[in-house]
Design goal:
This protein is mainly alpha-helical. It has one domain: Serine Threonine Protein Phosphatase 5, Tetratricopeptide repeat. It is built from nine helices and no strands. The longest helix is centred in the N-terminal third of the chain and has 26 residues.
Length: about 190
Amino acid sequence: MMTIDVRLRALLLTVFLVLMLAGVVQFWPEQKTMVTEPVTADMPLQPSADDGVLKRHFDRAVTQLRTGHYQQAINGFRAVLEQSPAMPEAHINTGFAHIELEQFEQALQSFQTAIDFRPGQVNAYWGLAVSLEGLCDIPGAMGAMRTYLHLAPADDPYRVKANAALWEWEQMKQAGSQSAHACHLSGKQEEKG
């Protein structure tokens, strides 16, 4: 009879701990993190005497992006792009700022422009994938993320997240549903049929 008491107490303690852990996980605050680090500038494709000024403007916009001042960052990168429209890094960072503001269509355009200027720009494909997810285009997001993985170096720290995103999207695709997160953010619903 003593053995039953110990087992019963152990069972009750286990159930209690599992319920406590479930409660903690359910109410754990979501961490909003930047999709990826802003890109630092390679100097513009057309060097000029104004490179120092352009770099200062670019660096200020990167700081605004890193500190969560997304609209100011967009405005700063637009000013940079007026002087150097073929600078992929400015387009990419503009795209990441748009993602943070949940402006996925504008983000998509920024990443596509960066890819047009520099097809091997790895992080542009990451941003493209996140933008497409926000627009509920899961097959497109999967294609962009696969391209990211194909181009990214083996030691890229975002490879694990990229593979996790692909796995999640594949599960959604197999289940025939869209991510509530993706469609909720953009206010779109998947059309059935």
